[in-house]
Amino acid sequence: MKTRWLMLLLAAWMTAATAQVDVEPYVRKDNFTTIEISPDGRYLAATVPKEDRTGVVVFQRSDLKVTASFALGKNSHVDRVWWVNPERLVISISEKFGLLAEPQPTGELYAINANGKDAEILVGQRVVGAGAGTRINPKKQEKIAAFMVDDLRADDKGVIVSAWPFKDDPFTRAERLDVYSGRRTVVARAPVQNAEFVTDGAGEVRFAYGAGSDNANKLYYRDGRDGEWRLINDERLNHRREWPLGFSSDGKLAYLRSEQLEGPDAIVAFDPASGERKPLLRDPVVDPSVVLYAVDGSAPVGVMYRGARSRTAFFDEHSADAILYRKLEATFPDQEVYITSRTDDGALALVEVSSDRNPGDFYVFDISHGKVAYLLSRGNWFDPDKMAPTRAISLGARDGVQLHGFLTTPLGITQKALPLVVFPHGGPFGVFETNRFNTEVQLLAKAGYAVLRVNFRGSGNYGREFRQSGALQWGGRMQDDLTDATRWAIAQGIADADRICIYGASYGGYAALMGAAREPALYRCAAGYVGVYDLPMMTSADRRKSKSLATFNDEWVGTDVALLTSVSPNRLADRIRVPVFLAAGGEDEIAPIEHSRKMEAALRQAGTPVESLYYSNEGHGFYVQAHRVEFYQRLLAFLDRNIGAARTKGGGSTDQTAP
Question: What is the DSSP letter of 488?
Fold first, then answer.
């Protein structure tokens, strides 16, 4: 009877807390993720997210009539599509065991015609040859993974792929793949393990870069198909990595993204004949984020930076491509503009436009007439004018290191003394926050909370030195950065010091619980979603997976079990004195549910109020729509009781434990 009463009370709290916010629009899948125009402009291919998979649909541009569709099973996602000719496209597959899991490419490539015919797997682990007694040429039944290198727009039948044998740290090879028969021909063999390849404008493999189990990147170059590979950068010697982006239109120069010993990465022009590197572009704060290509798709012409705002920069600001981008940016002020694809004749381009308040609109750009026509939107149920604004922030950490991040504040509310959710990102290494549209942030703002996201040490986008300064800093300086950002928000008058909660997913869940343990007086509650809370358990599992992952864990997380134990939240439960909400999935292979169960048990033993939400059939982030709705309703109710309206009105208590 008592349990039933508590459940009814909890339901009443949830209803009161979420009555003003309809969660469903914020957990609804986008209409489309990416859209690519066919070489002749007749068709469009769009990736379409479903509940637990992503498919692709092909439709006619003239009337949006669907002509083909493709999807695989649970957790299988269409990663990318490439038009090889006006009638046939190639599809790459990845797997995600949970909404927040990093997509893991399976190395499978499929092909399908625009009319839906002749769909088949070309290469990958599920290839089955037709065998003897048939007129169909069997494909190689070799255990490899294959990844697109060059779609060879001048070749209507072939593409260049990298082939990865199924073994630890393999030596890869580049192959030409026939997109109709699946036949493969070797065109290059890598001089380094785990290599990726880059071609020139003629489709010849010219660069190979990769790393063995030591995770030290090496970059090789060759003059042509018969040329010898020569090493042009070794991370162990030069203390930086370099990646090739492509060649100039005349083929005389190559463009490299080059890490620097201090500050953000630079774009340099590399002369293969002389070996000379000439600096081209470098932002004072952030790394290049997206490579921009010529309208004809032939060569890199610039980059996009995602810092305080998105901006583009070009190798030649007077080039036709730069002028074209500037015209588009003038047409869509204060928005990020990106040409996703174009027709072979250069007459039409597909343009994506987005911002902190707009999840993304797609337009067809008639280049010859300078006109844009609206096509489709990712999330047309969102009105940008009613979305919460996001602004860039910067602050000095306690040791003087400059930190950057973003603050989102509720629309139409006085921007002072707000209840604040500190929202650390997952990863943590190399991942970074931007000013792009974020549905989770918008949901929290709609519920009345300011949302603070900071790129703490270890985050990407601010150069090699900043990223590497997060190594071995789980629970250390990375956590200090979040604390310093929270105190900055209080000092600025943005946050009400008595109404701050910290919430995150994956590593963000770890940081949320560590924040509550290290700063018991700073936060009023903490919430962890598919988090990791026991570092010795995490590193022990990862080291068994591969030599490279073992090296990564040694260099970035640490090997001292006693030290890792001392910064594991489930071992510090007695220091956590504020209510906690935990959510996890039973199929999570990245942050197994055992982390959350152990965290919950430790909190209960310490007498700390804790509630949890577990689904046995979910992974690293919830896929099922009903589960996602319940999670965010529970999260909003939890925040409401502890830092929201229920707390300020005296209608909620911070010492309740869910049954």
Answer: H
